Each structure stands twice: as structure tokens, then as C-alpha cells.
């Protein structure tokens, strides 16, 4: 465990509270745009979820918005056709960077979905979300697969003793963990839930999840299920380096979702069709109706800083021409690996927070789709293959797409399902070729993932994935150079090793007309997700409204639920933390 002295405890700034700069605004956006003061032209640099969210909020408030996107609107969230696969009037097979996942604790993004019209839906695109019934953890070697409940019976009273019993019972029954290990992990959950904001950011942000849950001294199943598997599949991170603050915060959110707290929705929600069809394309149409100008094929190449402001952005347009982008306000909504090259020495000198953000890291988390000649009734929800070396998660999509008959609508008429898989570990050796995914060719990756899925799903002898059921496959086209000396991923994922929080910038920068909207921005959800991107966009728009002197209502920014029953314990923990004392429930020496 990371060592923190009494002096370190006492010198953690109170301003590092989780909710710093994050508000619950009372009023949602007005349906009628209101003209802002102080300049109305906004250039949104990047057309992913963050960029489109910012454009949406700004356009509703009367700003003149232009979005500049280098490749395709929707970014990592978009779906894409597999070229040349549609026959007989059918659509091309649906491909994607990775399956969409909308946990119930997503609150900001669903609000945006409700404001995107969709024919026949009273609540717009939001009504295209459907709930999964089950979650499944698969094991190899003939061990029983573990179904997880998506809803827990809420206790009459939620106190520390009840919480520990609830979590312990879940781990013993659902995951078959030994009672002492289940009890210990339940206690660690209690410690995190009763930790004050200052401890979460001052102590747990500096402690790896592996150390926090004491994985080193536990059984292999404990390590695999609660340390390695949890962090790899949630954050694409190694448990040995993942921030306890980040992992604990998401685990807390899932727990309260399962307990039906706040106005959280179902634990696991996904779209009822291909992402572009049921979300991105309707969104683009709505933004166009709001007057947003969309420039696709434009690659932003620089920011011109002059007289203490962004004077212009430079870009290469879809024809290769050099363009100068003029605006009153600039929203940088490109991912971190593309934002950093835009921040020249003048910008870094003007805002040191941008310099710290250059230290942020990314890892690979990439999707692969298998198109099958038969349905794959593995489970009606996501399957987490915790024993797979490449940390695979999967879902059979056809069962959630009632608007489509796969064979009738896609491909050549013989495909009946799409098994969508995400590969979260690209550096571990595989079971088929003994190489990490980074060293494999696309065909080797296809074979390796298929073999790892079969090891997880067919270890009891049932032919869940017969080889003759495989029709074809599709790997995210953003991954190039596989099998060669320089593999490249166009869409890496921001990860959260210990100490990441202080390196992440706020949405409002020290440059008065530059704002940041992307999943690397400091947000309450504290995880690189669509929700984090949407939340960052709302914070950036509120910053513009303040700077412009606009009277338009501010964007509502919803924060994660905190159990009121634990508020006195969190207050007590704040006192203990300031005194250099451990959490009252923490038996592990700090």
C-alpha cells in the first residue's frame, strides 16, 4: 500500500474535494434559445460525444456553432458499415469500435438523449435504450459460470453492518468466494463508501486497487475476480497501477444502481439497434435543425495564441487545403493524444494545467465483431470472460435489436447474429499463438479471440460457438500496422493510474476563450466514458456562458449519488483524515 505520512494527510488541500467545480444546477436548458452577450461564434474542435454534446447545449442557447471533425461524427461511439457485405438490397453488416454500454448511473448523457427527437419515441433517443436481464462472469477449466444479479433487494436500513452483510453475501453466493475473503472485500467497500472526499483524493487516489484490496495475500479467484478482472474490464488498467479512487467510485456507483438508489436506471443498458441508426444520425439531424454547421474531414492542426487569447485555429480541410478557423470561443473536444500536439509553448505557459495533462496515459481497448450463422444465447446481457488472457467482454447483439431481423436486414441473408467483443489487454500472451495482441496480425487476433471465447464458453463440453457458425468478422479499422513493427490505434482509451486526478485539467482553462470538453477533463464520474465526455461538455458550455455574460440557463450537471446514511461517517472521516488517522473501519495500516 502507498505510504502517506501524518504530514501528508494534513497538507492535502481541502479544495481537492471530489465535487470541486461540479454543481447540481436547478434549471435545465430552455427550449427557446436565448441570445448570449459577448460574442456568439463558437468553434468546437472534435465531433465525438463531447463535441456534439457541447454543440447541442450551445445551439439551444442561441450560439452560432461550427463543429470540425477529422474523420466521422460520433467518434469512438459511432457504428460503421462493413464495406461490401450487404447483398440483395440488405444493409452492410454493422461494425463498431466497441459495443455501447449505458450504466444506470449515467445521468447527464441520458438527459441529452431525451432531447434528441426520434420518430415514435416520447422521450427521443433515450427510449432506444433497453435493459439487459443478466450479467455473466465466465470461468475456464470446467468451473461454473457465475451469473450476477442486476438488481439487489434494498435493505430496510442501510448502515455499515447491513452493507457489509449485503456485499459479503453477494460475493459468497454469486462469486463463490471463501467467507473470510468475501468479508474482507466487503469491509474494503465499506471503507471507501465512508471515506471523505479529501481522503479519496489524498489517500486512495495515490493507492493502487491491488494494494487497497490486499490482493497479494488472497486466493487466485479473489485476485482474478475482484482485482485483475474488475480493473481490466472497467478501466483497461492493471490492478497494480489503477487508482483506487477511480475503481472505487465506479464500484460504488454500480452498487447503488443495483440497490435502486437515487433515480438511477437499470444496471446495464444498451441501444436497440446500430449506434448510428438509433442515436448518432438522429443527433446529427437534430443539430443541423438547430443551426449547427458540421465540417467533416477537417483536421485541426494548431491553435494560434495571441494577446492572451486564442486568435484562431488552423486546420486542413477535406480537400487538403489549409484553413484558418475564426471564432469568439473555442472548445477543444479532441481526445488527449490529439489535444497535446495542439498545445504549443505559449499555451502551456499561459495555463500550466495543460502541461500537467501531457503526462496522462492511454491504453488500447478495441472491438472485434463476429458475424454468426446462428444466434448466440450466452446470456441476455454482457459476459465478462475474466480468465481470458486478453480480458475479453462480449455481448450477442441481435437479441436486443427488435427493429431488425438480422438475416433479412444485413449482409448476405445468412447472418443471424453479431457477437461483439472488446479486447482490453493487448500486452498479455494469448492461448493460441503465445503472443500479445500487439504482436499479432489481424487474422491471428481473430483466431486468438475466438479460441479464448471457446475456452470460456465451451469448457463444459457444450458447443456454444461451433466453428462452422462463424460467417465473418470485423476488427476496428482504427487499428493499423498489426503484425508489423509499428502497430497503431487511432482510438486509444484514457486510463487512470494512481495520481491521475491532479494531472487532469478542468473544463475552464486560464485562457479566457479556450474550454476543454473531452473524457480526460476532470469530472465527477472520474472515468473515461461517454458520460464523462458529456459531463465535461456541460462544464465547458457553462464556462462559455459565464465568460460571455449570457443570461441563458446553465447546463445541469448531475453528480454521482452519495448515500445520506453515510454522511455522518464521511464527516467523521474528514476529521480523522485531517488528523492523520485512518478511516474508522479500516483495519489495514496506512
From TrEMBL:
Report the Gene3D superfamilies cross-referenced here: FAD/NAD(P)-binding domain
| Record flagged with keyword Signal | yes
Answer yes or no on keyword Metal-binding. no
What residues does the Amine oxidase domain cover? 49-544
- What is any Pfam family matched here? Amino_oxidase
Please name the GO terms that the record assigns under molecular function. oxidoreductase activity
Q: Which InterPro entries match?
A: Amino_oxidase, FAD/NAD-bd_sf, TAT_signal, Zeta_carotene_desat/Oxidored
Signal sequence annotation: 1-31
Question: Which residue spans adopt a coiled-coil conformation according to this UniProt entry?
Answer: none
Superkingdom of the source species: Bacteria
Question: Per UniProt, which keywords does this protein have?
Answer: Signal
In terms of PANTHER family, this protein maps to: AMINE OXIDASE, PROTOPORPHYRINOGEN OXIDASE
> What protein does this entry describe?
NAD-binding domain and a Fe-S cluster-containing protein
